[in-house]
């Protein structure tokens, strides 16, 4: 099985080319090569609904979601 060659890596500075976050810049936090997706700091926030449990309070938490690699461009 061959490994995919991606044009971005973790800790690269990227700019979003399309979508609701077009033009935003951020640092790549994590890459998922099998799905061709990445998590970028400060881009594509999603809301996660959490139930309360013994360790913490429940509620709605915002965090970064994944974005397709084809919508990202590395900035030098």
Describe this structure in words.
The protein is an all-beta fold. Helices cover 0% and strands 45% of the residues. It contains no helices and seven strands. The strands form two sheets. It has a five-stranded antiparallel beta sheet with strand order 6-3-2-1-7, with no helix packed on it. It has a two-stranded antiparallel sheet with strand order 4-5. It is elongated, with a radius of gyration of 15 Å. The protein starts with 12 loop residues before the first strand and ends with a strand.
Task: Write a concise synopsis of the structure shown.
The chain has 76 residues and is mostly beta strands.
Topology:
Blueprint: E1 13-16, E2 25-32, E3 37-40, E4 45-50, E5 59-64, E6 66-68, E7 72-74
Antiparallel strand pairs: 1-2, 1-7, 2-3, 3-6, 4-5
Defining traits:
76 residues, mainly beta, five-stranded antiparallel β-sheet, two-stranded antiparallel ribbon, 0% helix, elongated
């Amino acid at each position: 099985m061959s490994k995919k060659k991606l044009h971005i890596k973790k800790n690269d500075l990227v700019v979003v080319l399309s979508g609701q976050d077009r033009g935003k810049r951020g640092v790549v936090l994590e890459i998922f090569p099998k799905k061709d997706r990445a998590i970028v700091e400060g881009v594509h926030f999603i809301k996660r609904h959490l139930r309360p449990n013994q360790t913490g309070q429940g509620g709605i938490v915002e965090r970064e979601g994944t974005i397709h690699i084809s919508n990202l461009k590395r900035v030098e």
